[in-house]
Amino acid sequence: MIDAKVKQDVLAAVDGMGDELLDLVADTVRIPSVNPNYPGEVYDEVLGGESAVNEFLRPVMEDAGLTTDLWEEDKGRANLVGVYKGSGGGKSLIFNGHVDVVPPGPLEDWDHGGPWSGEIADGRIWGRGSCDMKGGNAGAIVALKAVLAAGYRPQGDVIIQDVVGEEMMNHEAGTTAAIKRGYKADGAIVVEPSEPPARLAIIPASPGLFYMVVTIKGKAVHASMRAELIRAGGLGDEVGVNSIDKAVLVYNALRQLEEEWGQTKSHPLYTRPGHFTLHPGVITGGPSGPFVISDESQIHYAVWYPPQADPEEIKAEVEAHIALHAQSDPWLRKHPPKVEWRLNWPAFDVDPKAPICRAVHAAYEAVLGAEPVYYGFAAVDDAAFLNLGGIPAVTIGPGDLRVAHAPNEFVDISELMDATKIYALSIVEWCGVK
Asked: For 35-62, how does the pLDDT look when each residue is reduced to its tens digit (9 = 90+)?
C-alpha cells in the first residue's frame, strides 16, 4: 500500500504542475512529426519532425535531472531516452511512448486552429498527436518531476523512452533500437491511449496484427466481351476472366471466416464479441480501366488475431479457407489466389496478476479511489516489442482511440492529469522512494 503522506505530497506536486503539463503537451503538438513512411507521404518532406520533437524534449528531461541520449537508427529520425538514476535497492521502470503521428488529412476538416494548433479550450488540448500520444509522453516526464519536487527520490532507475516509428511498425528504428542500445528495466508502462472501453483502462494484452494481401488473377480481353463471360452459352474463360468477379468470391469467403471467428476466437480480456476480424482495407482491380476486363485484383487485409494464438496457425487457417473456397470455382481451381503476408505486429499477453499490473493497479486505486478496468487493447502498440525484449509491459494512457487518427483529435485535460498522477504513484509503488 502506498504511504498516505507520500501519496498526498506527490499528488499535490502533480496538481501544482498542471499548467506546465498542459504547456508541454501543447508545445509538442505544435511540432508536426508525421511518420515519413506513412502511405501517401513524401518521405523527405516530412522527415525530421520526429527529431524536432525529441530535440525539444531533451532539455526538458535534462532540467528534470535525467541523463539523455539522442541518437538515430534511421537518418533524420532521432530517438530520445532519458535516465534518472535511482538511489538503489528498487526496481527499474520504463515509460515508453512514440513521438510520430499520422498525417492530419484534409485541413478543412479541422477546427480549433487546425491540426498543429495545440489549442487549450473546452477542457481539452486539441491537435494531431494530443491523444496519440504526446499527452502520455508529457505525463510521464511531469510524473517523475512531481515525485522529485515532492521531496522523494526513486530507489530504482526511471527510464523515459520517446521513440520514432510506431505508427508504421518501424520498431527497429524506435523501441527495439532502444532495447538493443541497453535501455531495459524490470517493468514498463506504455503511455498509449487506453480507451475504449474504459477511461484509463489497464491494458495487459493486445491482438496480433497481420498485413495480408490476396492477389487474384484474371484474363484480359476487351470489355465488350463481358457477355461471353457471364451469360449462359458464352465462351467463358476461353475469352476472358474478370479478376474482380473472382475477387468477390474470395472476399465473401473471408467474410464468412470472419463471422466464424466471431464465435470461435476469444480471450478473457476481450468481453465484447467479435474483436478478432479480417478487415478488407483496400480492394483494387485493373489496372487498365473499365474498357478492359481486369486481369488482376488485390485485396489488402488487416487480420486481427487473439493474443494467445499461434501466428503460423492463423496463417494456415486463412490460407486453407481461401484454398477450400477456390475449389468451388473452375477458374480459381486452376489459378488459385496468391496470399502474401507482408508484416506481423506480434501480440502480447501479460497476466493481470503480474507484478507490473499490480503496481499500476495500486497507483490507479490511490488516485481514483476505484478498481481499474482491465481490458485487451483494441489496437497494437510497442508494448509488444518491450515484452518480446524480456521487459514485462502494460499499457495505460490518457485519450480515446475513437478520436486518435481523426480530425479534431484531442486529449481530455482531467484525464491527462489523472494519468500523470497514476504514473507518479506507479513510480512510488514500483521503484520505491526515499
From this structure: 999 989 999 999 999 999 999 999 999 9
Instruction: Report the CATH number that the domain containing residue 241 is assigned in CATH.
Output: 3.30.70.360
Domain that holds residue 198: 4-206+347-431
Q: What's this model's pTM, rounded to 2 decimal places?
A: 0.93
Structural domain total, the chain: 2
Contacts of 37 (CB under 8 A, 6+ apart): 43, 165, 168, 170
Spatial distance between the Cα atoms of 195 and 217, rounded to a whole number of angstroms = 41
- Which cell numbers in the block locate residue 294? 481486369
Which H helix or E strand runs over 58?
Answer: helix 49-63
Per-residue cell: 175 = 523501441
**In 158-187, which positions are buried (b, 16+ CB within 10 angstroms) versus exposed (e)?**
bbbbbbbbbbbbbbebbbbbbbeeebbbbb
Examine the fold and report which residue of 345, 371, 406 is the final residue of a domain before the chain moves on. Answer: 345
- Cell numbers that stand for 347 in this block: 501480440
**Using the 8-state DSSP alphabet, how is residue 128 labeled?**
T
Render pLDDT for 235-288 as a digit per residue (tens, 0 to 9): 999 999 999 999 999 999 999 999 999 999 999 999 887 899 999 999 998 777
Q: Do 384 and 319 reside in the same domain of the chain?
A: no
Q: How far apart are CA 338 and CA 194, in angstroms?
A: 36
**Which residues make Cβ contacts (< 8 Å) with residue 229, sequence separation at least 6?**
236, 237, 239, 240, 241, 242, 245, 293
What H or E segment, with its residue span, contains residue 8? helix 4-16
